[in-house]
Design brief:
The protein has 489 residues and is mainly beta. Helices cover 6% and strands 36% of the residues. It starts with 5 loop residues before the first helix and ends in a 12-residue tail after the last strand.
Length: 489
């Protein structure tokens, strides 16, 4: 078991050394379309090809002669952690595996981000797509850190970009246009460990800094400036409030989905603090901490159904359920991993009794909270999966599908799972390998180094955004879901 906070800090130092592809001051962001033949540039972004052989997908192919290889060497599904590449083999993206795939490289790594809800409509499936994102850097010096407020637009379908047999008339959405990037930046005190936007008012953002403070921001003028050029100079971008109750830096942070402005934060010294909103846009941080964890608090999530209830996970291997009305400790607690940290959690917004957690050993669990007894010392795992070969760094239920969950790991994988699928041993036959590929595993995304955080876009069904040491991906797997199946005539 790692010592409190040391694991996260060492990861951050490693990330700071992984400076992005842009070495000069302007532009500060480089964006890429993995399937583009050309690149163009504007004031804020550059678009270019991904180098040949980039491991952005799941196909293994001999690289000797491209035409002969395609004719004589069959492709196969590459299983990370199981299959090995020969010296003359490289991973290549399979364009048919994605409906959309774009990448974005920052000057410095951004280990956390959040999606900013917009007013363009819910359940958008038409291309080109648009997404708004807020993120923060892990720069080489404290003074160089910034928050970035970004608008990613003209995100076209890319599925047929590398298909020589596809006609330009096959789909009007398959346009050979470059994505567009617009952004505004704000100086940030210290490196950004985690960042979250308030769900009720997305322009209000909280950031955890490595200087040990939590900062609250009003980014409304910067978000508006992405769509409409301001008539006056933008403000300097200073935080509206600095929360200083924590005695150490931290990573855990969550806004309440029920009460606007209520924020809970956890630090590497095992303490959790609640911050309550006051009138006139101010806040009060409760100085008395929730202090039952024995090591660093790694993640926090609010109950989707109970306004006063939240959960925490820790390096001490436990998950605790807290009730803000209860003054004498956690309401429930159980050992969620054996001998390793619990890094991340996600509480299903569709099925309120399901909580997922990811651990340091690469495994993740789905917990049925209905099984917690009155004493609260145990909880039943209804699913335990050990596919990833390194620590789980992010986990999130699909907000549009109650059975689907996405998991990111430090093994350079994002996996998508459907918990409603069960193994059919009779159909597989007697020779099937039970532990080869779990039937619940729908998709494996690769091509990023040391993935840190992922989020489903709540307004773009099946679209995921992810960040890693080498930048961002925004992609839509070519998976047909219940929401997108064509209606029967």
């Amino acid at each position: 078991m790692a010592d409190s906070g040391k694991k996260r800090k060492s990861e951050r130092e490693s990330s700071k050394s992984q400076k992005g592809l842009i070495e000069d001051e302007t532009p500060q962001i480089q964006a890429e379309d993995p399937f583009e033949d050309e690149f163009s540039e504007d004031e804020n972004a550059e678009w270019e090809d991904v180098p040949e052989g980039e491991d952005n997908g799941m196909e293994v192919e001999d690289e000797k002669d491209e035409d002969d290889a395609k004719a004589t060497v069959p492709t196969k599904t590459f299983r990370p952690g199981v299959d090995k590449l020969a010296e003359d083999e490289v991973l290549e993206v399979d364009p048919t595996a994605y409906d959309m795939l774009h990448s974005l490289t920052m000057e410095y790594p951004c280990l956390s981000f959040d999606i900013l809800p917009d007013k363009l409509g819910m359940h958008r499936t038409k291309y080109p797509m648009t997404a708004y994102v807020v993120t923060g850097t892990q720069a080489e010096t404290a003074e160089a850190n910034k928050l970035f407020i970004m608008k990613l637009s003209s995100l076209h379908r890319t599925k047929h970009d590398l298909d020589p047999d596809a006609s330009d008339d096959d789909d009007p959405d398959d346009l050979d246009d470059d994505p567009e990037l617009e952004y505004k930046s704000v100086p940030h005190p210290g490196a950004v460990n985690r960042i979250r936007a308030m769900p009720q008012e997305p322009s209000v953002v909280a950031s955890w800094s490595d200087d040990g403070a939590v900062y609250l921001w009003n980014l409304d003028p910067f978000i508006k400036a992405l769509d409409t050029p301001p008539s006056t100079k933008l403000p300097s971008g200073t935080p509206t409030m600095k929360l200083t109750a924590h005695k150490d830096e931290g990573f855990a942070m969550a806004w309440s989905p029920h009460k606007a402005g209520r924020l809970v934060t956890g630090d590497c010294a095992s303490k959790i603090h609640l911050t309550e909103p006051l009138e006139a846009g101010s806040w009060k941080q409760i100085t008395k901490a929730y202090a039952e964890h024995k090591a660093s608090v790694e993640d926090l999530v609010w109950s989707p159904t109970e306004a006063e209830v939240f959960a925490s996970c820790s390096v001490d291997g436990t998950i605790k359920i807290w009730d803000t009305r209860k003054k004498d400790g956690a309401a429930r607690s159980w050992k969620a991993s054996s001998g390793c940290d619990v890094n991340v959690m996600s509480w299903s917004s569709k099925v309120g009794y399901l909580l997922a957690s990811g651990a340091e050993d690469g495994s993740f669990n789905v917990w049925d909270l209905r099984s917690i007894k009155a004493a609260g010392s145990s909880c039943t795992s209804v699913g335990h999966f050990k596919w990833h070969t390194d620590q789980i760094t992010s986990i999130e239920w699909d907000p549009n599908d109650e059975s689907v969950i996405a998991v990111a790991g430090a093994d350079d994988q994002i996996t998508i799972w459907d918990m409603s699928v069960e193994r059919d041993t009779e159909a597989e036959g007697a020779d099937a390998e039970e532990d080869d590929v779990p039937p619940q595993l729908l998709f494996v995304h690769q091509g990023q180094t040391n993935m840190k955080e992922l989020h489903w876009h709540p307004q773009l069904p099946n679209v995921l955004l992810s960040t890693a040491e080498d930048g961002f991906n925004i992609f839509k797997p070519s998976i047909e879901t219940e929401e997108e199946k064509p209606e029967e005539s």
